Amino acid sequence: MAMVHTGGPRDGIELHVQRLPPPAGHPAAATAVLLHGLLTDSLASYYFTVAPGLAAAGLDVVMYDHRGHGRSRRPATGYQLESFVTDLERLLDRLEITGPVHLVGNCFGGTVAFEYAIRHPERVAGLVAIEAKPATASWATEIDGIFRRMVGELIEHEAESMAWITAHRGAHTARLARSAARLVRATTIARDVPGSRTRGAEQVRSVRCPVLAVYGAESELAGAGEWLESLLPGARSVVLPGQGHSVLAEAPGPLLDLLLWWLLDPGGTPPSPVPGAGLGRGPVAAGADVR
User: Fold this and answer.
1) SS3 for 160?
2) Which of 67, 152, 206, 289 is the most buried (most CB within 10 A)?
3) What confidence tens digit (pLDDT) does each residue in 203-254 have?
4) Which helix (H) or strand (E) holds 114?
């Protein structure tokens, strides 16, 4: 564990970083930077799921808590998407990671990854978007709706909401929800993220690296994979049946198989994560439905 200060004395921030190296005596096959989602998420969602398996397979794995999340510092303002991308830029510089990296982003972390790949195409070897899409105008509208619902349901009626979450989702989820509510109350994140600069289709097309997009079949984002494939020649999408938005938490085994294939052996036979999984473009494992 380490706290890494990025930027200068006025515009920098301390980020909580965890790094899992490959087994001793084995040079890293590549560097994978894992980016988590907003509000209730942190690097722990990777640390306790796919990160150990990626490191054991020979990858140098870097995880960190976004500003305002987990153990990273919580400034009162500065939560536009551009700030999260700048944090990633500066963190890689401070860690002296100079070669192209693989970005793995869950939800908002995937949006950060897309924006970084647009800004720094030469520094990205590949991108995995888990239940995520670029910062388009429709993305901004959707995330604004999420924040509005959160303010209306979780903050304005906090006691009732917490009681329901505790009863139906458990004490751990309730603790995460309370932390998210504190973040929204104490900072400008609810205004800043939806107000971030958005990208048009032509700018999304500037992403040059290979892209793997993974979605749950029951998620509202399930159709985004086909849209990305239509824009990006190097994009492939996977839809996991029976899964919703929480793919990382609820299907870590199939997701790890996909990540190991994409990051270490993309020319090999892709895995069939679960019966009926859809895999777009290229060779398809037996039992998978082509999308």
Assistant:
1) helix
2) 67
3) 999 999 999 999 999 999 999 999 999 999 889 999 999 999 999 999 999 9
4) helix 108-119
Residue 164: pLDDT band (50, 70, 90) is: confident
Measure the CA–CA gap between 106 and 49, rounded to whole angstroms.
12
* Angle formed by the axes of helices 108-119 and 81-94, nearest 10°: 70
* Residue 45, token pair as written in the block: 């969602």
- Rounded CA separation 286/276 (Å): 10
Q: Strand (E) positions, the chain?
A: 2-6, 13-20, 30-35, 59-64, 101-106, 124-130, 211-216, 235-240, 278-279
Closest CA to 103 of 89, 205, 175: 89
Q: What residue type is assigned to position 27 of the chain? A: P
Q: Domains of the chain by range and CATH?
A: 2-134+199-209 (3.40.50.1820)
